[in-house]
Every structure is written in structure tokens, then in C-alpha cells.
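Dear Dr. L.,

I hope this message finds you well. Following up on our conversation about the binding site, I have prepared a predicted three-dimensional model of the protein together with uridine 5'-triphosphate. For your records, I am including the exact sequence and ligand specification that went into the calculation, followed by the C-alpha cells. Please feel free to forward this to your student if that is useful.
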Amino acid sequence: MDAPSIIQAFQRAGQGQVFAFYDQLDQAARDRLLCEAAEIDLAEVELLNRTLLAKGTASVNLEGLNPAPYEPLPENGGNGSEWARAKGAGEAALRAGRVAAFVVAGGQGTRLGYDGPKGTFPVTPIKKKPLFQVFAEKIRAAGLRYGKPIHWFIMTSHANHEATEAFFQENKFFGLDSAKVHFFRQGRMPAVDFNGKILLETKGSIAMSPDGHGGSLRALERSGALDLMKRENIDTLSFFQVDNPLIRVIDPAFIGFHLLRGSEMSSKTVTKAYPEEKVGHFCIQNGKLIVVEYSDLPMALQRETDATGKLRYLAGSIAIHALDREFVRRMATGGEGVSLPFHRADKKIPTIDAAGNPVKPEKANGVKFEMFVFDALPFSRQPIVIETRRADDFSPVKNADGIDSPKTSREDQMRQFARWLKLAGTPVETDATGLPKIEIEVSPLFGYDEDSFLDSIGKRSLKREELTHGPLSLE
Ligand code: UTP
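The resulting structure of the complex is given below.
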């Protein structure tokens, strides 16, 4: 579209303020603004303004809501032979090269307050390896274990794309084949004020932000990632978030359940640590699997127990999924009338006033629109929820300190390494929470899960001082 048509379209949509300073810009700045404007789907913004900004927007409907069933771990009553069968099926899929890893790394990471892509943040206890390195080594090790290198898709944002790619280049892709690491940007959405007017960040740029991790489904399609998967005979994506170093990026039992049950979208769950834990809850409503956020689930339900005193809403969501390739395509292209809803988040959005002066708001002055990947669950066929041990899969780095911080995550990694050592019959002294007295780090290339660790540890003799004084670093 040419400049006048873009500007007219904005004016017709009541969004002419986007071009209020157009005449003051030089040609390069005008072109940049036009490019940003052309990215915006004005009809979509209009719809969101009508549905999400309108006063009295209905709160979440809780009618007919029940806890979702899930497949428990063998130690919690699950069927051990089913788990073994699932693991076998997952391993076969990995040996056949049907599975790719997929990390969403387009978030802004404001809570951590770290300057740079979150994946470059150092997380391991001794070597201070960055998150991306931890995942890269797990993916590399799993590829070697199953005799088939694993493709890795990395979703970035406009803000961190170049920095992310450069980080992998500088670090020689951490030993991965660069041809099997695929970066693509997620989409953006404009922020609006409380009257639905698109906000400018400067005279020549629109306040745009990433469209949420749910934007990954559209971005996988738009970037050609799904076509690439098809060409490579990959039908399953192992989806995870960039802030969780404990994650088993490749988990054969989870993948096996997903495939054996014919699921299009599977999710891992951990049981809530306490009733009010701030996690999404897996629920069933009208026969559909959904995730209800803690903020939308009344406290009485969060605390509700059954006749045996067990929490009814026990299954918490930890944002780990397995996704079928063609399901992602259906969601992305709106086939069969499906699409992810947007959520509104009221935020402080840096903007400019009518005179063009910068405004740093003290309180929320507008709305960002985001999609969440778990909203795809009710559209999927045969979705399943599989229990995992929190200690094996989940310790995110969200905040600079306190819960879910670099410190808690480092300690959880060390607890995991100590547990593996004990499992191998090596005495390591720990406190009551399982935290070892010495510093321990296990490279994913030595062992990235219980099985691979136990295979390696038999070949390595440990010195007494290593175990008593530390640090113990297994490479
Ligand atoms: P969070 O919900 O923790 O958001 O993202 P965030 O933006 O990273 O951090 P805060 O809230 O600003 O502190 C969970 C995961 O989803 C990804 C993040 O990169 C992280 O892996 N994500 C989030 C995206 O990829 N895109 C988004 O638009 C939002």
C-alpha cells in the first residue's frame, strides 16, 4: 500500500492521531512509521476495542467448571506399564527424527530487569552458563542419545531478534549444527489508550509490543517453520519457555503419551504446592480442556477440597506443551473457524502528549493485547494433561529476587544434581530440603535427565575431596 492509502485507512478507522506528527518527520522516519502502521490489522484493533475495552466486559464464566483429569505419575497412582509404553513410543519418535524443540523467547522480561535477551542470562550454579546454552546442550545431548540431531525453533521479538542471533553466532551455536537452529520473530500489537486510540511512543513510532506467547502459533506458520518441519518429517513440537533451566526439553514419556493418545496438544502439570499458588488451573468446561488463571478462579474454588481432604483444583499449569504441527497450522490460519482470543493487560506505556513531549506514566495509561498459548487447548483434539515432578521440570527465573529468582533456580538445579548423585549411590550431604552442602553442577552433555546421568556417572570416578569440599563439576 502507498503512503496516502495507509494514512487514509487510519483516519477512516478513527486512528488518524498516529500520523499527527508525520509532517515533521524526515523521509526515513516517515517510511519507518508507515512500515509499522502497515503491520497493524485495523479491523482486529477495532474488534479488540469493542470487546475488551468496552465497559462491563464479562468476567470469566465459571458455569459448569470442574477440575480436569490428568495422568498421574506412577508414584501417585499412575499405571507404571502405561508410562513405560509411553516412554518407548517417545524414544521411537525421537529416533525417527519426528520431534523438534521450540522455545518462546520473545518476552520483555521486565520483572527480571536484565538488559538483553532473557536467554542470555547466566543461570547455572558454578559455570554460570546462560539459559540458551543450557537448552542447547540438552538438545545436543538428546540428539546424540537418539542418534538423530534435533531441530530447534527459537521465537524472538522485534526487540531482541538481532541480539539473540548474534549471541548464538558468537558462541558457535554451543556446538549445535547452525542449519538446525531456526530463529523467527513473533508478531506485534499496538498499545491503545483507554479510549482505544493507538498510542505513539515517539513522534515517528507506534507503541508496539510482542503479541504474547500465543503469538507463537501464527509466527510458526508465517515464518515458514511449519513448512520446514513438514519437509523434515517433523510432526511434533516440544514447547517450552525461555526462563526455566530445569525443563526436560526432550522428555520421551511426555512425547510418547502425546502420540499414543492421538493428542493434538498435550500439557504437563505439577500439583499445586499450596492452595493459593499463583499458577493456571487445568479445568474442564462444556467438555473442553481449558486453563483458568489463578486471578480468575475464586479463592473458594482454589481452596476447595474433596471428601478425602485433597484439593479439587490441584493440577497447575507450567507452560510445557507438546504440539502437533498440523494443529498449529489450523490455529494459525483460522481453519475450521478457530483462533486464539486476545487478553487485555493494563500497563504503563511510555508515550507522547499532544505537543509531542515524552510522557512516562506513573500509573497504567493504556492497554496491551496478548495471546496465550494455553488458549489453544479447547480447540485441540484429544488434549491430555500429564503429571510431572516439579523438581524435574520447573524452576523458572522470573524475578530479580524472592520466589522464582536466579537464586531459587540455582538451588533447584543443585538439588536435582544431588538427587541424581544419590540415585547413582553416591553419598552427597544435603540439608532437609535436599540442597547439597557443596556446590554441584552437571553439564547437560554429561547428563540432562536421570537416564543419561546414570549412564555417564558409571564411567566417572569421583574424588573424595570433590564430594566433601566441592565444587563438583561434571562435564
Ligand atoms: P512471561 O509471562 O514470563 O513474560 O513469559 P516476560 O515478558 O518474559 O516477562 P515479564 O512478565 O515482562 O517479566 C513467559 C514466556 O513466554 C515468552 C517469554 O519469553 C517467556 O519464555 N513470551 C512472552 C514470548 O515469547 N512472547 C511474548 O509476547 C510474551
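In brief: Residues 107 and 173 are 21 Å apart (CA to CA).

With kind regards,
A. P.
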